[in-house]
Amino acid sequence: GGPGGLGARLRGGVRAGAAVPGPGGASFELFSFTRRGQAEGAAAPEWEGWHQRMQHLALLYIDGANYIDVADPNWDVLIWVGRSAGAAAVAGMATVYSFFAFPDGERLRLSQLLVLPPF
Prior knowledge:
single chain
């Protein structure tokens, strides 16, 4: 599809900021996905299919990687989309876990970070 096709298929994601310019006229966009605020037992959002497919790559490229339970609302999934010459491709993925931090808040822990070749 066209340059808007991939981003349009990542429904349910929050576009986290403007596109960032990259080398050779490419640009990159970051989409953030979470289950926070979703009712317990709600149907799986479409982005979980993307994450499930990319998680297999994480197991191949990251030593010691494990599957995560995306039904846990504390997980956030970030997907980078690269655009160049009218085409779009997934450039990478990260998973972040939110946990309670004493005394008054939460902390984010980067769990997996995968940048796909050739990016």
